[in-house]
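User: My instructor asked us to take a sequence, write out its structure as tokens, and then describe one feature of it. I'm not sure where to start. Here is the sequence I was given:
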Amino acid sequence: MAGAERKPPDARYRPFASFSHWPRVAVDSRRWDEVAARLARQRTEAPPNAWGRVRQVLLRAATLDAARQADDTELMISGTEASWRQALTAKGLPGVQALYEAEVRAHDLVAGAADARAPLTEELLVRVHEELVASHEQYPVKDGADIGLQPVARGEYKTFENYGVLRDGRRRLYAPPDRVPGEVSRLVSEAASRAFFDAHPVVQASYLLYAVDAVHPFSDGNGRVARAIASLPLYGAIGVPFVVAPASRRAYLTSLEEYDREGPQSLVDLVFRRAIEAMTQAFDILAASALS
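Assistant: Let's start with the prediction itself. The structure tokens for your sequence are:
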């Protein structure tokens, strides 16, 4: 859960770690290589239009599942998802379709960058946000005891403090607005480093997910931006995105929260599992395409 306030909450921002100081964790490379090689073989044997459907199905499944789980009672307390939920208040097709189309446009940008072997840039981060919140209009901001709605600025950094609420009730403050440009610049530099380039794609994706989440650079849509940006190395390595279905959402949020206490192993494990599951689902989609 996350929120935003005019008055800074009683918490401190902890800058994300540089990649060179990020603890190294184990990845089951043998399992990864086996599944990735099988997917690559199946992809070459599938009909020409089959691969395009893989990402569509993965993104649509995650979008529709999220819509089914939308709880309108959380509208005023879940800041980074409030306008997303507004579009789904009636849980009708128009809102769901707009959310899905936004996901597709954002992931097209990320997949295109991966195909060009381009690194993370500030322009990519901002453009992804522009697409993801294209249908958003407002998000809630707390001002003392009152909660008001503010317009969502597409592709612009936040102007109010925002924070996450941990399971024990404590607040985790994200980067203050005046520090966001510098933190984004630092992240871009980290993602262009030799150490990052040499890392396993699961570790790369996990680091990007962790760092974008730590900064929370925008007023709304930060979770979806983080997951789209984390897809960059996965698109480059295996051609599928990082998506979190509602069934994995609790584990996803827990792994981000546990980083401060236990390091990145839980987060890396989650990204690994989700990537393996995405590749496995891709097998099924390609197999079905071959039979149709």
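For the description part of your assignment, you could build on this observation: Confidence is low (pLDDT under 50) at residues 68-93. Try explaining in your own words what that tells you about the chain.
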